[in-house]
Please model this.
Amino acid sequence: MSDYLANNSDVVLAALRQHLGLAFLPLLIGVVLALPIGYLGVRFGWLYHPLLNASGIVYSIPSLALFVTLPYVLGTQILSPVNIVVALSLYTLALMARTVADGLRSVDASLTEAATAMGYRRTRRLLEVELPLALPVVLAGVRVAAVSNISLVSVGALIGIGGLGALFTRGFQLDYTAPLLVGIVLSVLLAAVTDLLIVAVQRAVTPWSRATTRRA
Amino acid sequence: MGDDTPYLFDPTHWSGPTGIPQLLLAHLGYTGVALLCGVAIALPVGLYIGHTGRGSFLAINAGNAGRSLPTLGLLMLMVTLMGLGFLPVLIALTVLVVPPILTSTYAGLRNVDRSAVDAAVGMGMRPWQVLWRVEVPMALPVVLGGLRSAALQVVATATVAASVGLSGLGRLLIDGLSVNDYGRVIAGAVVVAVLAIVLDLLLGLVQRYAVSPGVSGRGLGRRTGGPAAPASRVDPDRL
Amino acid sequence: MITFEHIRKQFPDGTVAVDDLDLQLPTGQITVFVGPSGCGKTTSLRMINRMVEPTSGRILVDGEDVLAQDPAVLRRGIGYVIQHAGLFPHRTVVDNVATVPHLLGRNRKERRRAAVELLERVGLPATFADRYPSQLSGGQQQRVGVARALAADPPVMLMDEPFSAVDPVVREQLQQEFLRLQSELGKTIALVTHDIDEAVKLGDTIAVFRAGGHLAQVGTPQELLEHPADDFVREFVGRDRGFRGLSFESAAALPVRPLSEAGPARLVLDDSGRPVCWEGAGVRGGSAPVGGTFTQHDSLRLVTDLALSSPVGTAVRVDGAGRADGLVPHHDLVDHLATRRAPA
Model:
């Protein structure tokens, strides 16, 4: 495994770089789109259940099926990385729109009431009261989305674009375990580091959720 | 084989060993076997950890660790190590199924209202009776939720498994890609997506009807969804 | 002054919560809205800061029609306290208190200074400033809630069951401090409660609501207790209304017996004549503490409490220096209560 790494560091690094891009760009796109959509699902209550159902359906589509269908829908080349990015953005959006809605709904109604009664207008209340309070739930969703994106990218190798997944197909074709092991370890490590980073961010931006010991 | 007919509407694709019904059955078979293996391993372990609280670190982190495993890499590694065949694929699938079931079983049990468990012990139930009569029924919505996501995981991974020689609906995608038969690829994608969605809906129904109305709040005339806080959802008129 | 003019509130489902309400809340006083649940008292309160919009009628705050004002601006000028304090869990105590000044765009330093000052005013040490609400007890949170409502120094405060969520001992304490604070600040306060005892204790004026959003009676606590307008008010004020009414009657006219007539038991005094304990026959264990005493300036309610809780059924009167100067056995008290005035 170390021999393989030493001799193929260029290939592995390139695969890792591609993997990073294919996992994080969709994460960003998905989260940015999910914020307004999730909010709409709360603002207009009748949208919540349709949103839940749509998100459930998108999330249950197997990744390979979505990867191969998108060129047909989008008119892209089958080898285009756009397919992977769009597919993973859709998964992220499906997961996060629901999470954002649930996070906002989890905010105690008496708090939004209190904010209104003190003279908050809707937009400012959303930014200063509801969103911060929904943050723990939202960030927990981001963790799940990030980790599953990282693991799903490699499936793209079956249609030619898959970051570390390229190491899997190569090892499989050559009947050679080293690239397979390197790919799996890197992918799991990447997921673990990402997860830890998000947890660190979560702790940094929600100091109140740790201050639960009562020192009366 | 009329080239103008869409793949799904060509009758020749609906019979024989590579026909869609056969592939679908094979796919369901893999899914079922892998789920059974996963449940057989994860459920007892999850119940043990959830009931006793011992080893909770394992149960909490299993879910995330499982999610971070690259399915394609795992499949190909198993087959490279053990050779072509169903067994290496089954091992890979089981490895992927265990974490969500384990984590949800544990979480379900841990979320059970402690005062209900306390009451059960106080009334003289033995540990087994507490587990089966109180904890499991109250944890059921969460446990079944884990089973549901495990099932989706297997359906998706079984599709990918066609790339390591397995049968099932993934064949349509992998073979279609290798011979540039895009019609077949799309047909396979549609069928497998429909399968996943239908399976998810069916398990959703099971989740709904296998759970006691007292726990789920179903049909009690209260508009409170979700599996939490069951005690507050008992209909006073029935007491 | 807050004025309700022909206020009516009908909800979309047809329920009439408040019907033709005319009411004036005097400046600088506490007006308590009390009544059974569903009587429209909270709805009436919430119409003042437009958390609920009236269907018809006008509400004037110091002569200005609230419906003519921007709701957000209006609310920033009216303090609001709710049952569980409703503190923002993601903000520190000081930032919670400074919420309205923050909305009004005051600068950070000044906001903080004023907020810390207010914390001390409601009886919390400045060291609490940087804690999060989850680190405070329920009673402390409620104090922060009051400080938050006062932060922009609004002339008007609305309080919705402000002391209902804390235990009785803390509630009593919060009520006392609230009255002390109000005596310094002189805000115009509307307070909703379902608890007639709280209403009597806190209210300068009490407005009793009945189901359907009608006013049953408006008056001072004493007027309500002594001259209930109808059966509803009499019923609501409670079966032990007579007992509550005793809060307003002085013990001065109560006949007392000399200390020698203590009956089988004996009152033990210390060297300066202050009561120490009861001793002798009829006292369980041979000796029992006196518990409490009253002076002739106290109310009959206190005397009744003392007689009922005394180990020998006798209340002890003391003079200004705390020396025992008379006894009231409970049968004397009962006779006095029966004859003091013709039954209402």
User: Anything to note?
Assistant: Confidence is low (pLDDT under 50) at residues 221-239 of chain B. Chain B has one domain: 19-218. Chains B and C do not touch (no CB pair under 8 Å).
